[in-house]
Description:
seven-stranded parallel β-sheet; alpha/beta; Rossmann fold; binds NADP nicotinamide-adenine-dinucleotide phosphate; about 15% strand
Amino acid sequence: MVRKDTPPALCYLPAMSTQHPVIVLTGASSGIGAALAVELARSEGARIALLARRAELLEEVAIEVRKAGGEALVLSCDVVDEAAVAQAVEQTRATFGAVDLAIANAGVGLAMGANDLSYSIIKKVMDINYLGAATLLAAVVPTMLAEGRGHIAVVSSIASYRGLRRSGPYCASKAALSTLVEALRLELAPQGVAVTAIHPGFVKTPMTDKNRFPMPFMVPLPKAARIIARGLAARKREINFPWPMVTLVKLLSWLPGWLFDRLMQRSPK
Length: 269
Ligand SMILES: NC(=O)c1ccc[n+]([C@@H]2O[C@H](COP(=O)([O-])OP(=O)(O)OC[C@H]3O[C@@H](n4cnc5c(N)ncnc54)[C@H](OP(=O)(O)O)[C@@H]3O)[C@@H](O)[C@H]2O)c1
């Protein structure tokens, strides 16, 4: 039996169902999700439910997960569909016997300037990045609380620290996500459920491949996956990387409004 007052362990094992943790991961068909699935299979022998809409890509990731020493279950679904996500979590429990770690990683990065303000873009980004994480949290947290163990993680962004030009909907969705899990952590951690907020800077993925602006301190995908997997294994509260970009954006977040506005209005579009 896991004691509820046990401090966070340095690895999964004491709080997990077996030595090979069962993980539900959204956004597993591409980029950070796909690389993280393979890394968790390699480092933990993880048994992973891979969720995203593109089933054919998930099947390819599943092959890589198995090659890396893990087990994979492909569950194609849209994270915005609450019932579908709940069903995927049930299917994971039925297949692997438990859920030790749930990672809400699915997300979209749509740009929107003030002159093109669009309700449908704001809604889409909020639906996927924020409410699409909430569907997973709602599906796993009650059972984790009943068991007094488990771990939830969300992939937010350093863009959650402050509103950035042409990225309002994205920054807002990630700020909402980080704030939600910060609040949840205050109640979940004392009850044995760890909570991790992941704040990457720029990582080379299909999402950033579309960007046509400078992306300083870009992190290669395998390195990002290793940093995240290590942080999750240590059950960190937050995983922020790379440090130069984190420092830069944290500094921006501490600036008074008038100075922030001046600097950002002068920055290249
Ligand atoms: N790359 C970066 O620089 C960076 C930095 C900070 C934070 N992040 C965050 O990291 C996460 C992963 O991004 P990425 O860079 O790896 O992008 P990506 O390669 O475009 O992957 C996005 C993933 O989200 C899934 N997804 C999107 N909408 C979905 C929906 N409605 N239902 C289910 N799955 C959905 C996609 O799968 P399907 O299309 O198959 O459904 C895909 O697997 C995102 O939350 C992103 O905001 C990325």
